[in-house]
Amino acid sequence: MNKNYNMITFFKVCLFLHVVYAGDIAPFITKCKWDDSNCLKSSTQNAIAIFAKGIPELGVETLDPINVANLDASSKTLKLFLKNTTGTGLKDTIVKKVSRSISESKLLVTLQCTVDFKGQYEMNGRLIFVPIEGNGGARVILRKIIITVEVDLGEKIGDDGLKRWNINDWKHSYELKDKATIELENLFNGNKILGFAAHNLIASNSNEIVLEVGPPIVKAIVEKIVNNVKRFFEKVPAEDLELL
Question: I want to staple 214 with a disulfide (CB 3.0 to 4.6 A). Which of 29, 123, 189, 210 is the partner?
């Protein structure tokens, strides 16, 4: 058997493997028709834990834990800065609804999460109309937070000539379905009397506080997730994500 024949055979095998496995770039995705909401929901649910671990080769960083280095969550009456915040629990996210509209180029996703955040805080101002200050360790547990994300979904052609989805824009909303926990160390610089009163106030009004100062925090988390999905779409052709 001559060398030329062996070389040709080798290239044929390589081409065959490329054709067979090219469609397996994201084998954990079940391809669905655009109007099959049950399939979309199931496929998204199956992908959650894999996404949470991270898929570096597809542009997806680790999302559980999810890290936010610095965040300004200030309001008109309160200066609140968070740093080195880490959240765990996204791998256990429950997909409540997924729907897609071809005519409106929309993708709607509703998720239920319980996330445990830990980090450092610095705060000064008025919280629920009460003067408050402090800095130190912080822990916030958001239980059964329902997050709905509406995505404007576009399309573009990749360098390989294949169509890919693209997130043109997005917006979100959220609501709490269970009581949140907020624990802040070193309130009033360690003053035990003022700190005790503040702890009681926070414990009794935790959900109201999350609604007051939570929007920038939730937005930062959703934005990080959306950016990872966007990079995933850039890597994976649309034909590997949908049934035509």
Answer: 210
